[in-house]
Amino acid sequence: MEKSIDQLHQLMNNVLSDFSHINKKRIGIWVKEGDYLNSKVQINIENDEIDYELYVYLHKAKEEVLVPHEIFIFLHEMSHIVILEKLKNEQGIGYVEQYLSKYSEDIMELEEKAKKEKWNDEKIQKEYENIECEKQTDTLTKTLFARYVHIAST
């Protein structure tokens, strides 16, 4: 798993060096063993600052490297951080709270509609990608992926 963790650190450092507006001291990254790569960002807003806890669940052999899909998943979480920090610096912490509230409402509405209409996973994923906050994150993720996938794969 060491090789994969090194790749994650390299990806994170590339993102952080390319986006100097991010307060690096407020990001914690935790790598835990899991069945497949999955990740989530927990956000805590306090005193006009945002603390991020990025959890990465990963299961790899010692020398096994990340596959492109796993790199994309990690960069998606980093994209959330980049966007939130940019919004905080440009619009203020109040705007970030509104952004996160809208995002949460959109997800809850989608989940309710999916349950009511008995959507399959593919339909849920497609509709999830249409949420405005998610569209913005996906656009940045694709840009970062194109920029870093070659670096991370070496």
Question: Can you describe this structure?
Answer:
By secondary structure, this protein is of the alpha+beta class. It is built from five helices and three strands, in the order αβββαααα. A three-stranded mixed sheet has the order 1-3-2, with helices on one face. The two termini are 16 Å apart. The model has no long low-confidence stretch (mean pLDDT 89).
Structural Rg: 16 Å
Rounded mean pLDDT score: 89
Task: Report the principal-axis shape.
Answer: globular
Runs in which pLDDT lies below 50 for 5 or more consecutive residues are none
Helix content percent band: 55-70%
Q: How many strands, what sense, and barrel or not for the largest sheet?
A: 3 strands, mixed
| Element-level helix/strand string | HEEEHHHH
Secondary-structure class: alpha+beta
Strand content: 15-25%
Number of strand segments: 3
Distance between the termini: 16 Å
Strand order of the largest sheet: 1-3-2
Per DSSP, the total helix count is 5
Keywords:
single chain; 154 residues; three-stranded mixed sheet; 5 helices; 3 strands; 62% helix; globular
Outline:
The protein is globular. The protein is α+β, with helices and mostly antiparallel strands and 154 residues long.
Q: How are the secondary structure elements laid out?
A:
Layout: H1 2-18, E1 27-33, E2 38-46, E3 49-58, H2 68-91, H3 93-117, H4 121-128, H5 132-152
Parallel strand pairs: 1-3
Antiparallel strand pairs: 2-3
Helix pairs in contact: 1-2, 1-5, 2-3, 2-5, 3-4
